[in-house]
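hey
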């Protein structure tokens, strides 16, 4: 944890960019028929999990949007991999830490170049996701004092699908099919809240027919149109990469700008 946090900026969203809405926290939702097959194709091609594909896409866009060379995201870990934990009747989930080193990719790197390193980085985070909360709080307090500012990513990821099975082989969709599937997508704001202990919280659910990706965010740091922009950009990155046209990492800020303008 300490090594990972030291590699990243103290927090992913350091400064408010707008007056907060009322209620302050908005949940944007994308229901995408294009994502399931695209995620499957990328996961199979790069020998990673579909969850890692989505985690990497969201982390890369957070880093690109904020100008960070390193992304720090806190996935929710179920902590039931150990045999003795599988049948416990209790909440065992805790935050993990995923560190995505955008700075170690070459100048011509594209999104898919991140996946090989993202897989072991995610595994390392999940393996270190069982700890005494008091020790975790003490670590954050000590690092905050050392750096002179609060240290906490305030950026989380939760893949709520209960199990991820290897996908049955399916032919890669034709670009026309991708476009048709994306037109079927639904983008809305189903909920608002007054208080959430995070600034960016992405949730994934769904099945082989469609994935639902929700982003609950603090509107002082991510206004509503920016929330929708991140959701559309995740879909854009994954779908275009699965079709063999992955965006360059240097293109991600412009992609977010484009999707943000479209969401206004």
């Amino acid at each position: 944890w300490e090594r990972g946090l030291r590699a990243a900026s103290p927090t992913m969203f350091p400064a408010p960019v707008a007056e907060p809405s009322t209620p302050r926290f908005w949940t944007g939702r994308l229901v995408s028929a294009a994502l399931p097959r695209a995620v499957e194709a990328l996961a199979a091609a790069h020998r990673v999990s579909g969850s890692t594909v989505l985690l990497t896409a969201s982390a890369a866009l957070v880093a690109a949007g904020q100008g960070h060379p390193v992304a720090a995201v806190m996935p929710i870990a179920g902590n039931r991999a150990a045999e003795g934990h599988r049948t416990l009747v209790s909440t065992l989930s805790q935050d993990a830490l995923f560190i995505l080193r955008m700075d170690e990719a070459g100048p011509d790197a594209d999104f898919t170049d991140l996946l090989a390193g993202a897989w072991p980085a995610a595994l390392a985070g999940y393996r270190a996701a069982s700890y005494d909360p008091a020790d975790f709080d003490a670590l954050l307090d000590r690092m905050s004092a050392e750096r002179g500012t609060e240290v906490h990513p305030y950026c989380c990821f939760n893949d709520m699908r209960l199990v991820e099975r290897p996908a049955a082989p399916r032919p890669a969709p034709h670009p026309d099919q991708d476009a048709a599937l994306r037109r079927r997508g639904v983008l809305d704001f189903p909920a608002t809240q007054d208080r959430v202990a995070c600034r960016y919280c992405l949730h994934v659910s769904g099945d082989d027919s469609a994935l639902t990706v929700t982003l609950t965010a603090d509107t002082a740091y991510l206004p509503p149109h920016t929330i929708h922009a991140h959701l559309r950009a995740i879909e854009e990155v994954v779908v275009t990469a699965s079709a063999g046209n992955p965006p360059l990492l240097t293109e991600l800020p412009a992609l977010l700008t484009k999707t943000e303008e479209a969401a206004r």
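Residues 2-263 form a domain with the Chloramphenicol Acetyltransferase fold (CATH 3.30.559.30). The chain is about 40% helix and 20% strand.
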